[in-house]
């Protein structure tokens, strides 16, 4: 038997990618205690807390407007399934938390969608779950956004505003790509 045959089977690890944005991040440096460089392992039975109090929270935000414990993420395995997920709970008594426009009051919790935007105050966090098989631990990978996440990813693109003729049929539907309609004087017809 070779060492390859005797080796433990490699299992993939669930990774929670979190991209942070705040409009004052450059001058206030509220993310200076977060490790943006590498993935971090978190035991499956630990709760990942975010907030101002570094003695209570694993992920500390340096901002007096953030609650001592703002929110928590709990890793779990779904009932009668091998699929894992995350539950997010608002721990702040003063600040509401929104997850994809679902508002959570104090101690409210919901399942975290596989891709969502978490907002509180001026903070925007894009959360993306990369599924894995491990049930012993998960990983977090933190990123820093340079532009607002809501404007960058969520707002629908507005259609270009073009005049609509009185008959209600847009001539651009019938024109080849790159061609624009030309105006003709009705006397020329």
Automatic annotation (TrEMBL):
Pfam families (alphabetical): FHA
Recorded hits in CDD domains, A to Z, give: FHA_TIFA
Start and end of every FHA domain? 49-121
InterPro entries this protein is in? FHA_dom (IPR000253), SMAD_FHA_dom_sf (IPR008984), TIFA (IPR033621)
Sorted alphabetically, which keywords does the UniProt record give? Answer: Cytoplasm, Immunity, Innate immunity
Compartments where found = Cytoplasm
What Gene3D superfamilies does the entry give?
A: 2.60.200.20
Residue ranges, annotated region (Disordered) = 169-189
Q: Which family does it belong to?
A: Belongs to the TIFA family.
Protein's recorded name: TRAF-interacting protein with FHA domain-containing protein A
Organism equals Erithacus rubecula
Query: Which gene holds the coding sequence for this protein?
Result: Tifa
